[in-house]
Specification:
ten-stranded antiparallel barrel; alpha+beta; 396 residues; 2 domains; four-stranded antiparallel β-sheet; Lipocalin
Length: 396
């Protein structure tokens, strides 16, 4: 009797299990039919698939991936997450979307993107032939996928990857270095408590180094001369009745800020505000008689203008004028500094390179100094330095 009861219960359990399997298969078939109807223009089904249906659907997706033997890509937009599978040739073989909020499957063409947007166009199943790999991948001609490298350094930004644009008012470089060879002569006068000595012209050559960017500039210049002096005069308390030899060693450090004053398509002009530091050592000798050194170290506030005007595509005029004056500890000095040059720019419209410029110009520097103004050893002078120069500049 007991055996018959056990056998009956076993048969009932088997029948209930078969019914559950048939019901799960029916639920999955109904969900698939609803999805196909929505993809062809029907209304979206709101019924959430059962747990068994979800597990069976996932198993089916894994089977599709293994059959295609290719790459899976996940993308998302404002409302849905999209899964796309590509074969070895880059063609779309499988694509499905799920709503972010509900988790329900939705047609790819109705995944929330506006019609005509690039993302929606690439992800619609109907336009699968135009689909592109998502992310930083691109397909090479041989079929392999390589990294899509976008330019991380945009043009006209402060970086060493440049594109030199046609607008001359912009500064498409980080900084520039300039090297000047200046051939100039010295003239002027010197005096003390009485008389005045006139300097004969003395030609010398020197070098100047410059650094510039779009906001600041620095330069270094050293001048050395030895000139004959005519006339009777006193200098630093020593009397020279019949002239002598004037010697100088002058170093000028210059730094300035610049800000726009006027800009147009072919021309621009900027203000310059900065300071010079003048280190001067001057003396006069006549045989065994010497005046001793007159040393002047003075900081000089500076104001000026710098301008440029384009003549041709690669040729422009550029110049500046600066005035500096200062006094310290009974000593004073002033500097007038001006340049005018014609600049030729070598073609440089390429990446990872520097822009080369070659200049021919004329430079004028006037230095006035005065020491011990009210003493018996007074010394002062006005020194003109003028001459042509050549300059090479490289813009990085």
């Amino acid at each position: 009797m007991n055996r018959l009861v056990i056998a009956g219960f076993t048969a009932i359990a088997f029948l209930l299990g078969e019914v559950s399997v048939l019901r799960a298969e029916a639920d999955y078939s109904e969900s698939s039919a609803s999805t196909e109807s929505s993809g062809s223009g029907g209304k979206l089904s709101k019924k959430r698939p059962s747990g068994k249906s979800k597990r069976r659907a996932r198993a089916e997706v894994r089977g599709d991936e293994e059959d295609s033997g290719s790459r899976k890509v996940w993308t998302e937009n404002s409302t849905a997450r999209i899964k796309t599978i590509y074969d070895e040739q880059g063609n779309v073989v499988y694509q499905k979307a799920w709503d972010k909020k509900t988790g329900n499957e939705v047609p790819v063409g109705e995944s929330g993107e506006e019609p005509g947007s690039e993302v929606a166009r690439d992800l619609r199943l109907g336009d699968a032939s135009e689909a592109r790999p998502y992310g930083r991948l691109r397909r090479e001609e041989d079929g392999d996928y390589g990294e899509r490298r976008s330019n991380p350094r945009p043009q006209y930004k402060n970086h060493n990857l440049h594109h030199y644009g046609p607008d001359p008012t912009r500064h498409p470089y980080e900084f520039s270095l300039g090297f000047t060879f200046w051939s100039q002569y010295l003239s002027g006068w010197i005096q003390g408590t009485g008389g005045k000595g006139t300097l004969d012209k003395d030609w010398r050559s020197t070098f100047q180094a410059e650094f510039h960017n779009s906001r600041v500039g620095y330069s270094y210049l050293n001048l050395t001369h030895s000139s004959a002096v005519t006339g009777g005069f006193t200098f630093n308390g020593i009397t020279f009745a019949s002239g002598g030899i004037y010697s100088e060693d002058i170093t000028i450090f210059d730094g300035f800020f610049r800000w726009p004053l006027y800009h147009s398509q072919d021309s621009w002009m900027d203000w310059l505000l900065g300071a010079k530091v003048l280190l001067a050592d001057a003396k006069v000798a006549a045989g065994s008689i010497t005046s001793g050194s007159v040393k002047t170290t003075v900081p000089l506030p500076e104001l000026g203008l710098i301008a440029r005007h384009n003549l041709l595509d690669n040729i422009h005029l550029r110049g500046f004028a600066k005035l500096a004056y200062g006094a310290l500890s009974g000593k004073s000095a002033g500097v007038i500094d001006a340049e005018l040059e014609a600049v030729y720019t070598f073609p440089g419209d390429h990446e990872y390179a520097f822009l080369n410029q070659f200049s021919l110009g004329l430079k004028y520097t006037n230095i006035t100094f005065e020491a011990n103004k009210d003493g018996t050893n007074a010394a002062k002078g006005s020194l003109d330095h003028i001459g042509p120069y050549v300059k090479y500049s490289c813009h990085f």
